[in-house]
Specification:
The chain is of the alpha+beta class. The chain has one domain (4-277). The chain contains seven helices and 15 strands. The protein has helices at residues 18-21, 27-51, 70-73, 106-118, 140-148, 152-160, 165-168, and strands spanning 4-13, 58-61, 64-67, 126-128, 131-138, 178-180, 183-187, 193-195, 202-212, 218-221, 230-236, 241-253, 256-257, 267-268, 271-277. The strands form four sheets. Strands 4, 5, 6, 7, 8, 9 and 15 form a seven-stranded mixed β-sheet that branches. Strands 1, 10, 11 and 12 form a four-stranded antiparallel β-sheet that branches. A two-stranded antiparallel ribbon has the order 2-3. The two termini are 36 Å apart. InterPro entries: ORF017-like.
Length: 281
């Protein structure tokens, strides 16, 4: 597990400068709020690169094409999904083989649950208010396919499953759009594309949904007995410019283990990747 420094900084005119007087808000507070958004996006990028085992050299993220560097995947280079922790519609062997007939359906969720329960070792669920649940992240295009491929009554049951009072007050259900077969369904535009098995380039017609069990991804910080994030403020150019940097020491990794006395080889721990066809917008 590797950790390294991750930081982001901004500079702007100080409060005594005329530029600051032209705007009705405090730039210092605005910058701090911006750091929260920046780190939220960066952690999301790290998480989905690791969880979905995205190994392509670049990705589309927030409308930009980003060349992937260690700071983007949490300083621990992701590997391809292990052979028993990825499956596709129609038993396709590679992401580039998926076509418009391989859209996301409820049967893929059922198959993922079966594989999670029969995995060796079993992918451990999370216990919430006496329930054993998994979490699955889908891209908005996959959610749309799921909605259109499901009859109206069944879709209503899926969405209403997270609306009970006991579930609504539980953090793990917060932000989910439904529940099916013991899986909390969540949507994220950051679910990555597929990866070509030979060229390792992104397959833009595919998205990689991912089922998560307990302890599916490791996140570590390197600031013992101190706040995880540290703000540094500094003045420049005879106090005419003000700068703020937000720093942390962090690492993220998707674990993989070899089971003793087993011939199945090293397998990803706590995740199953489900690529499906998803037209590029």
């Amino acid at each position: 597990m590797r950790l390294n420094e991750l930081s982001h900084a901004v500079r702007f005119k100080n409060k005594e400068i005329i530029d600051q007087q032209h705007i009705p808000f405090n730039l210092r507070e605005y910058a701090k709020d911006g750091f929260v958004d920046w780190y939220a996006d960066r952690l999301s990028m790290m998480f989905f690169i690791q969880a979905a085992r995205y190994t392509a050299p670049w990705m589309k993220f927030d409308g930009y094409t980003t060349t992937i560097k260690p700071v983007h995947y949490g300083f621990n280079e992701p590997l391809e999904p292990s052979k028993l922790r990825i499956f596709r519609s129609g038993n396709k062997k590679a992401d580039e083989e998926l076509t418009k007939d391989d859209e996301f359906t409820l049967s893929l969720i059922d198959d993922a649950v079966k594989r999670a329960k029969l995995a060796n070792p079993k992918i451990r669920s999370v216990h919430v208010n006496g329930e054993s649940v998994y979490v699955m992240y889908l891209h908005p295009e996959q959610v749309m396919q799921l909605r259109t491929n499901t009859d109206a009554g069944q879709w209503l049951d899926i969405t209403e499953a997270v609306c009970s009072e006991s579930r609504a007050k539980t953090p793990i259900f917060d932000g989910s759009f439904g529940m099916y077969n013991g899986i909390i369904l969540r949507e994220s535009e950051y679910v990555p594309h597929g990866v070509h098995s030979k060229t390792q380039e992104p397959v833009l017609s595919v998205r990689r949904a991912v089922l998560l069990g307990a302890q599916s991804v490791i996140l570590a910080y390197g600031r013992k007995d101190e706040p995880r994030y540290h703000l540094v403020e500094k003045l420049f150019d005879y106090d005419s410019e003000f700068g703020i940097a937000a720093k942390t020491i962090i690492g993220m990794k998707k674990s993989r283990y070899t089971l003793a006395y087993s011939t199945q080889g090293a397998q990803d721990f706590g995740t199953i990747v489900i690529p499906s066809f998803s037209k590029e917008i």
